[in-house]
Structures are given as structure tokens and as C-alpha cells.
Amino acid sequence: MDKATGFYPVDWGFESLRACFPLFQTIYCMKLLLENWKRFLLNENLLAPYESDLEYTEDGKLVLYHVSSTSDIETLDPAVAAQSTKSYTKAEYRTWDRPRIFFFTRLGQEDIGVGRIQGQAYKATIDPEVLYPIMQDPLKFSYPDRQEEYKKIREERDGMPSYYPINTYDMVATLAENEGFQGGFIYPQKVGNLIVALWNPIGVEKLEQDFY
């Protein structure tokens, strides 16, 4: 015992550290499991208000539908789609210019602006935890107290000075991505009519049945 401190000395040599490594590894794994479980519960709560209008696969993926005038598509790429936007999506791009593709969440769904969309229907699946409910904004990414955080990220990413105006959609998307919501937004056009907007390419397959 050290008479000055009243504690027994600890040997932090290589052998001691090696002996402790399994314990550190176990603690780290438990921490990861806890964080993933919290994230799972959080996501379950975030999408809970929409559950009646969502369709899932047996392995828990969210099913999405897209109707296109182009046939034989294997991958929907927002960057490509943005080059030939339809009239009903141009209004969306006036509010925020990030390329994205819009999906329905159930068969037979109509756009509230144009009704039934003509074309080939496609089906995709995505992990629900990558989608953020922008209209509800449960994590408050659009709140004023998050603006400085967003401006710092925007300046590092785009070189845009902090005094430039803030686009709220980009602010929410940027902060959401930092929290792991890498896929896109989910939001209602009206009650019972959900839209998913994705900004990353996604693989699709032709729907082997009538959409409407």
C-alpha cells in the first residue's frame, strides 16, 4: 500500500493490459448493443404514427413503390431523375434542389396533385431506420438552437459562409444524416397518403401486378 495515498499500486504494464482486454472488449460490445437497441426503439417510435400506411417484408424492410414512364429500370438514381423532372415534382425542387426520388408506400396510392400516375410500377425495399419523418421532426433538427451546428457542417462541406440563408429542408437533412438517417424523408401528403423521398440510388424491380 502506498502510505501517501492509502491505495495499492496498479501495474499497467503490457501483461496487465492484455489481461484486461477481454473486459474492455465486452464493455465496448455491450455499449454498441445498447446504442443499437436505443436506436431501434427510437425508430419504432418515430414511424409509429404511420404504421397503418406502411408495408413491410418478412425481414423488416419497408416496401416502396415508384411509377415511371421509363421501362426496364434496375436502379433509380436521384441524380439522373433530377435531369428530367415531371411537372408535379418541379414544385418540390423549387423549395429544395437536392436530387431525390419520390415513392409511395402502398399499392394503388394516388398523388394528391395529379391523381393516378401512368407508367411502369417498380418496387423497392429499404431499412426503415434510415428514414426521418420531416414534418413531425421529433428530434427537433429544424429548431433555431440547431442552426449554428448546421452552419458549421455546411461550411465544412460546401465552403458556404455562415451568413448565407438557411434552407430548412437541407438543415434537417444534414443534421438527420449526422444522426444516421442516411436514406431520406418520409412525410404525409395528407392523412393516409405517405411519400418517401430518397436521395441515394436504390435498386428496384418491376412490379408483377397492376399498381392501380
Distance between the termini: 80 Å
Q: Overall 3D geometry?
A: globular
Mean pLDDT: 85
**Topology, number of strands:** 9
Largest sheet: 4 strands, mixed
- Rounded to the nearest angstrom, the radius of gyration is 23 Å
Strand content: 15-25%
Strand order, main sheet: write it out: 3-7-6-5
SSE arrangement, N to C: HEEHHEEEHHEEEE
Number of helices: 5
Poorly predicted residue ranges:
none
Q: Which structural class fits the helix and strand makeup?
A: alpha+beta
The portion of residues assigned to helices is: 25-40%
Please characterize this protein's 3D structure.
- The chain is α+β, with helices and mostly antiparallel strands and 212 residues long.
- The chain has a domain at 52-139 and 179-206.
- Helix content is 33%, strand content 19%.
- The protein has helices at residues 14-47, 78-81, 87-95, 147-158, 168-178, and strands at 62-68, 75-76, 101-104, 120-126, 131-133, 184-190, 193-198, 202-203, 205-206.
- The radius of gyration is 23 Å and the shape is globular.
- The N and C termini lie far apart (80 Å).
- The relative contact order is 0.18.
